[in-house]
Write a structure and sequence with these properties.
Radius of gyration: 16 Å
Protein name: TIGR03086 family metal-binding protein
Largest sheet: 2 strands, antiparallel
Order of helices and strands: HHHEEHHHH
Strand order of the largest sheet: 1-2
Shape: globular
Mean pLDDT: 90
Number of helices: 7
InterPro entries: CHP03086, DinB/YfiT-like, Maleyloyr_isom, MDMPI_metal-binding
Low-confidence stretches: none
Number of strands: 2
Length: about 200
């Protein structure tokens, strides 16, 4: 896939999360999410931190401080939107394919080319859109081309016992429904498409 097409798909995913976060009201912030360690507040804070981390990495800055959770302040939607726009701006540069992204969240020595970093960002925000929508009791949909690209990335993510380690980016994969869409993507990355019913069962 050409990097410009991938960039457009990533923008769709990110703008979908911006729209979801804009619907969050104060009472929602304490609700649980499919990410067991995070409430809605924690999930949004993580999403914002990831945006900031990718934006810093686009300049070659691999400092862990950029990836740390920060307060969402009095206006979580505005704080999140600012972080998301920073990532979109970082990925919009003409020489993205030539840049090297240090990604300390993936390991101390992890450095990936721009297109791969962009693909990681895309799948992250497709899945986090589902996480947030599920927590809010909303539905989320994506164009088929977004899902196809994210599914390809999700299938490339290694699975194994290391996903059980503290701080692992994803939980172990769960059985895929076989829909070739969003449910398969979240299942590959350790979420039950039936959440929260699967948790309560």
């Amino acid at each position: 896939m050409h990097i410009n097409e991938l960039r457009d798909l990533d923008t769709v995913a990110v703008r979908t999360t911006i729209a979801l976060v804009s619907q969050v009201i104060p009472a929602d912030l304490v609700k649980p999410t499919p990410c067991a360690a995070w409430t809605v507040y924690g999930l949004i804070s993580h999403m914002a931190a990831q945006h900031r981390g990718f934006a810093a990495s686009s300049t070659g800055d691999g400092g862990l401080d950029h990836w740390k959770l920060v307060s969402l302040g009095d206006d979580p939607a505005a704080t999140y939107r600012s972080a998301a726009e920073a990532a979109l701006t970082a990925f919009a540069v003409d020489d993205l394919a030539d840049r090297k992204f240090p990604l300390p969240e993936f390991g101390a020595e992890a450095v990936v080319p721009g297109q791969q970093a962009l693909s990681f960002h895309l799948v992250d925000y497709v899945v986090h859109a589902w996480d947030l929508a599920s927590a809010l009791g909303l539905s989320v949909t994506f164009p088929p081309e977004v899902l196809a690209a994210a599914l390809t990335v999700a299938r490339s993510v290694p699975d194994g016992e290391f996903r059980l380690a503290p701080g692992a980016a994803f939980a172990p994969a769960v059985p895929e429904p076989g829909d070739e869409g969003l449910d398969d993507i979240v299942a590959l990355l350790g979420r039950s498409p039936a959440w929260p019913a699967a948790v309560a069962a």
